[in-house]
Design the sequence.
């Protein structure tokens, strides 16, 4: 069973994504900001990270850069950005930081599941 780390500061969004992933048989860890996410990956390295961009303490771009450091256990873990920032520039910038894929909120539940499934298959 694959483990997914969801990094989202909005409780309703986090709970919705958590439920959706659990309903599809995934183990889900959650964090409310980048610092919590980094602590989480020290305990267990997930097979996928889903992160928001706009968060307190450490934003999603900063988190991606930390997760992508060559010495990090997460250097090769796929990262899906899930953000309300929907301009092409936002997606390009996220990918330049090391994101694997990008989905814009609001999204259809099946759209998220399709992306997660594809990323977990590699």
Sequence:
């Amino acid at each position: 069973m694959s483990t997914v780390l969801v990094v989202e500061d909005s409780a309703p969004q986090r709970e919705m994504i958590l439920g959706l992933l659990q309903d599809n048989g995934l183990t889900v860890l959650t964090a409310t900001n980048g610092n919590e996410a980094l602590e989480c990956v020290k305990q267990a390295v997930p097979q996928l990270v889903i992160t928001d961009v706009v968060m307190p303490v450490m934003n999603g771009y900063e988190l991606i850069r930390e997760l992508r450091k060559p010495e990090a256990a997460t250097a090769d873990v796929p990262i899906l950005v899930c953000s309300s920032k929907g301009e092409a520039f936002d997606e390009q910038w996220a990918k330049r930081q090391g994101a694997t894929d990008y989905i814009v909120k609001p999204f259809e539940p099946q759209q998220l599941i399709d992306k997660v499934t594809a990323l977990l298959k590699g």
